[in-house]
Write a structure and sequence with these properties.
- The complex is a heterodimer.
- Helix content of chain A is 88%, strand content 0%.
- Chain A is elongated, with a radius of gyration of 17 Å.
- Chain A has one domain (2-96).
- By secondary structure, chain A is mostly helical.
- Chain B is built from 4 helices and no strands.
- Classes of the chains: A mainly alpha, B mainly alpha.
- The interface between A and B is large, with 52 and 57 residues.
Chain lengths: 97, 129
């Protein structure tokens, strides 16, 4: 495990820059989550944050040569999709009543 | 060589996702925010997935990344569409002059009628018993 963590330091510089860009995007989306005017804005920002985290996981898997991280990313995207669908159905049902 | 191609792909993908986040932050309206974030993040994550598949390189990795990209193509636009529909039905009006969807959704069943149906018949046609 330790040599895997040391291997992170020898990551490709382009992939390291990409991960930095993804983290900046995560912060920007977090601003929208904090003061989105209404609930749908917050939900779409959370969806984008989940996509950004999945991208980070994929790049981490490419750096550490771990295929399992790709599977973890798929599962995280599935959970985020289900959460978004649940929020959409909640918004729609709350207005119907 | 492969590593540099994968790095450039990852850089393009993360730039697209950063553009998605900037659009989410700067767009004036919920619907434009949804468009910006959904489309750009779909394309960006496809680039990142292909970079990962190219780096790992084995057959299992290519299969996993192919399935992952299929999954992302399917789910991200569907989630954005569902949210936009729910937001429109909850009364959130878009920031445009014309509202082409006005009166097209059935108020109770949430079915969408086409353009020719609304122009021809004001009342939904009931079969005469």
């Amino acid at each position: 495990m330790t040599e895997r963590l040391i291997g992170l330091a020898g990551a490709s510089p382009l992939i390291a820059v990409s991960m930095l860009l993804l983290v900046i995007g995560l912060l920007l989306a977090l601003v929208r989550v904090v003061h989105g005017p209404r609930i749908p804005d917050r939900v779409i920002a959370l969806d984008l944050m989940a996509s950004l985290v999945v991208g980070l996981l994929l790049l981490l898997g490419a750096t550490l040569r771990l295929l399992a991280l790709v599977d973890i990313g798929i599962v995280l995207a599935l959970i985020a999709f289900l959460g978004t669908v649940a929020f959409a159905s909640l918004i729609e049902r709350r207005t119907r009543e | 060589m492969t590593e540099w191609i994968a790095g450039i792909l990852a850089l393009i993908g993360s730039l697209l996702m950063l553009i998605a986040a900037i659009g989410l932050l700067r767009m004036p309206d919920f619907y434009t925010r949804m468009q910006a974030s959904a489309k750009a993040s779909t394309l960006g994550i496809l680039f990142i997935v292909s970079a990962t598949g190219l780096t790992l390189g084995s057959l299992a990795a290519l299969l996993h990344t192919f399935l992952a990209s299929l999954f992302f193509i399917l789910t991200i636009p569907i989630a954005a569409h569902l949210l936009g529909r729910a937001a429109y039905l909850s009364g959130l009006l878009p920031l445009v002059i014309e509202d082409d969807l006005a009166g097209r959704y059935h108020p109770r069943t949430h079915e969408l009628r086409g353009a020719d149906e609304t122009t021809s018949a004001v009342v939904p046609s009931v079969p005469n018993d």
